[in-house]
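Internal tracking record. Fields below are filled automatically when a chain is submitted to the structure queue. Please do not edit lines marked as system-generated. If the sequence contains nonstandard residues, flag them in the REMARKS field before resubmitting.
Queue: standard
Priority: normal
Entity type: single polypeptide chain
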Amino acid sequence: MSQTTTLSQVMERVETMSRNHTDMNIKTKEISFDSLDTVWIGSQSHSLKPIAQQSIANRLGIPIQYLRKCPEDIQAINLNHWIKYEKNEELFFRFDRNDVRAIFTPRYIPTDNLEVLKKFDALNYAADTRVQCNLDNEFMSLSIPDNKQTFQFYGEKMTPGISVSNSEVGLASLSIAAFMLRLVCTNGMISKTEVSASYRHVSAKILAALPAVLSNVSQELGRQKEQIKLSLESKVDNPESTINNFNNQFLLNKTEREAVTWAIPLEYGFTMFSIVNVYTKAAQYKELPAESSFRLEKVGGAILGMVKHTVN
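SYSTEM-GENERATED OUTPUT FOLLOWS
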């Protein structure tokens, strides 16, 4: 669920969450498994979090859904067999206390949320800057409205800004894009622009480009005004059918669809602007993980960008 807070409060929470995080390169020959839930590194056992389970299964070429259906002894047989064929002599493990939160090749160089936030501090963003944040152990998205650029269409007040997303466990790359906040209800949307940028976690230098990218994204925000105007003028005869089609088009999962269903009566209307706001409102559904909230905001932005091509 998206939460309005300040940069300093986000920083404090991230510092608390990362207090027990450690990283280590582990010799592949020292790795063995009791099951999909438990890995041994030498003589010490560790619990595997779901993302770590997914990442090691992907690494070894074993379908994760198959593994999860297997008894623990069959899981161990599969994992211990295929780990012998791992090409890398070492694997990169990310820990939270004794739990393994993700597994990568040694080529992976992480960009942690704390690094991203410190970069904003270095760019002189004030600690009390109001932001919208989705944050959990797997994903962070941070949207920073620029109140100086607030504008109004047909009684709708909108504030543009920038959005930064990041995953320390490999769910997504560090990404920077345009953001639009609807002030009447604090719905936010992530709008893809020509200058949006995404970086894989393979270089320690990826944050160096942040100032230039932030500047470029800010320059493109004006283009979204015309899209919002078009969406307010674009009529929709059957909102439910249109929403169902978008649910299918964007491959929303069960919980995301539940969020959309919850949001429909809160943003119901017969324009594409209303359809967009169903998805941005859905991002505030309490049961959503941070990645899904961010995803629904992106869906809203993507639909906004499609308005001129939509035919009902």
